[in-house]
Task: structure prediction
Amino acid sequence: MAKRIAVLVSGGGTNLQALIDAQGRGELTGGEIAAVLSSSPDAYALERAKKAGIPGYVLPRGDARAVTAALVERLQALDIHLVVMAGFMTIVTEELFRAYPNAVLNIHPSLIPSFCGVGCYGLHVHEKALAYGVKVSGATVHFVTEECDAGPIVLQKAVEVLPEDTPETLQRRIMEQCEWKLLPRAVSLFCQGRLRVEGRKVTVLENAE
Ligand code: GRF
Result:
């Protein structure tokens, strides 16, 4: 039976689109996007879900604990197996990871542990990478744990930083060459049962366990 995937979004949803497109090409082996949950009623990601015929939901606003309780209740009602944070900008509490241990994935636009952690999101990530003068940057898919951006790493991909890069050009290159490829691949590996997590280490298995 296919694993039911919920994608959590807050904004434009290009990573959601990459997942929808991968599903359309038959590349989300073992999984199906069952729902899109947004922290904002105005997120363009909800339009993308609608166009793809995927049910969309708007989460209530409130303090982190109340929002997480509503989120977990909705995920369980929808019989979700895998939660994917794709540009989800809302803080959640440990109840989510208790309900979904090693079953919440996030995409971050840097090579963790560089340029990550509290306050490091969006264009800030790329501003910091350029200010530091790194020669490569990239993206990371990781399992989400209570500590921000610090869960076990599933996949990473690097790109060169070019001398003429601005935060915007670097952001775009990382999205196109890293994020939109890594996230569908990681989701598919999870859904095929090919990710083994031992402590911080994630092993990609040849075959399902
Ligand atoms: C991406 O850069 C992702 O890595 C980060 O938030 C951004 C979301 O973009 N977590 P989009 O909404 O998927 O276009």
Q: What stands out?
A: The pocket of 5-O-phosphono-beta-D-ribofuranosylamine is lined by residues 11-15, 86-87, 107-109, 175, 179 (CB under 6 Å).
